[in-house]
Amino acid sequence: MPSRKRVLHLAVDYPDAFDRTKTVAIRNFVKANPAVDHVVVALTRTADPRQAGLIHGDGAGDPSVYSMRYWGLPFGALLFPAMVQVARRIRALLEQERISVDLIHAHKLCFEGISGYLLSRWLRVPLVCSVRAEAESKILRYLPHYRPLIRRIVRHSRRLYYVSLWYRAQIERLFPEARPLGRELPNFCPGTRLAADAVPDPYRLVTILHLDIYQKKGLDRLLPAFARLARRRPGQSLDIVGRGRPETIAKIEALIARHGLTGQARLVGALPHAELLARLPRYGVMCLPSHNETFGMVYVEAMLSGVPILYSRGTGIDGFVDGIEAAIGCDPTSVDSILAGLEDLLDRHGTLRAALLAQHDQIAARFAAGPHVERYNRELGLVP
Prior knowledge:
Elements: E1 6-11, H1 25-31, E2 37-46, E3 53-56, E4 65-71, H2 79-97, E5 103-106, H3 112-123, E6 127-131, H4 133-142, H5 147-156, E7 159-162, H6 168-174, E8 182-184, E9 201-208, H7 219-232, E10 237-241, H8 246-258, E11 265-269, H9 273-279, E12 283-287, H10 297-304, E13 309-312, E14 327-330, H11 335-347, H12 349-366, H13 369-379
Parallel strand pairs: 1-2, 1-5, 2-4, 5-6, 6-7, 7-8, 9-10, 9-12, 10-11, 12-13, 13-14
Antiparallel strand pairs: 3-4
Helix pairs in contact: 2-3, 7-11
């Protein structure tokens, strides 16, 4: 009986003992693949080297996770030496715990990919990297002297998995050797169920975001667009769902008042995920005109709940929603474009919702774990 293969995952975006609020997208991917064993090193940066540390576990009882807080400066300063130190610490951890691995998956090409590249060479095991454009684009744009290193990592990688499919053309333009390596790998959205019996209110719009990065999420342009919409179409409301610091909430409340939206644009606060999924089908539209979004699971969750979406072209989920009529793209830098998208969604709301209900199974299959995980295991030789 052949022994099970083991994959070492290097991921900054993984809930761990230092920060349980991180996105669950990578964890969903790992847990969707029980055919192989996994070891996850969940990385959390600190600018204070005295705060560096290692905890076995994720803070919630998962022994396959090691929570590692590492020293690193913001904005990618001294990124390479920081990632070298991370690689050395991980190598020492594997030796101490007597863990052998058959594959390394670095979940961002230009960050964890540096550590993964070094470990792959030291341990003589293959490397694959995910491409998440929010992070990759910053390094490739603002630290162009890193491009020769990233080219070496690309050449060394067995596969590149595009979580940000829209960014594939840019990677392949910069690194032509990446072309045969690329595969789609959307974030998986387990737990979303079709609510065909829900009665949506087309006058109720919702946006879902982390309030502390509201400008990156496009709220500062969505609010003026919605203000113009509300003047043209009385009775519209916008629920703003998400957590944020008190000072951020005060800024957003001031923005709401400035645009004359007090009572129409409402801060709902953070909602448990299950409650959010229960509420979603009652909304008419989910609108999130983000800037430089990696993926955004909430777009998929909304569509699978029967809610048409406004998304941003050239970022986030763009590339994964081709052929879905109820996904309307906009220019997130343009209030006019956001307004036009909202009006299109409202003008055709009944038709678009019916299309989503009819396409539900196809959309669910597009973002389902099974086919992607099976191909991943088969192509990388992780299962017999």
